[in-house]
Design brief:
140 residues, mainly alpha
């Protein structure tokens, strides 16, 4: 039985009775040894649940996910804000996370810029800024 066949057998079994933690771990450890085609088959299979699907995704796109995060962390705040405003860039969640971190670190004018952008963004962003300001006022 190949690694691919073993994983698919475990996925079918877990579909009905749930994952045994040891079996899930052994399947996750074998994933990097599979070909890209086999990984895609597993990812698209109806038998695979979210626990294993997330791990397959990370194995498939590990290099790209890491590079995006590094690029976003290296960007200047003004460039980050421009990308945040451009909703087509595809990295809005990562950019939002980085902007929140910069707001919390209180980097001078960056903090004000982030607050201004969040105040004209989604309601959840507006509420987040308000809650952060409230937290600071309670500390003082």
């Amino acid at each position: 039985m190949t690694d691919y066949e073993y994983i698919m057998a475990q996925c079918r079994k877990s579909h009905f009775i749930g994952w045994n933690d040891e079996e899930l771990r052994s399947c996750q450890e074998v994933l990097p040894n599979l070909t890209r085609e086999e990984l895609l088959k597993i990812y698209c299979s109806k038998w695979v649940d979210d626990k294993l699907r997330q791990t397959v995704f990370k194995v498939l796109f590990a290099d790209k996910v890491g590079k995006c995060e590094q690029r976003i962390k290296a960007l200047d705040t003004d460039v980050l804000i421009e990308e945040f405003k451009d909703k087509r860039c595809g990295n809005i969640a990562l950019i939002r996370k980085e902007m929140r971190e910069r707001f919390k670190q209180n980097k001078g004018t960056d903090r004000r810029k982030v607050a201004d952008v969040f105040n004209v963004s989604l309601k959840s962003d507006q509420q987040w800024v308000k809650s952060q300001i409230r937290k600071e006022q309670q500390k003082v």
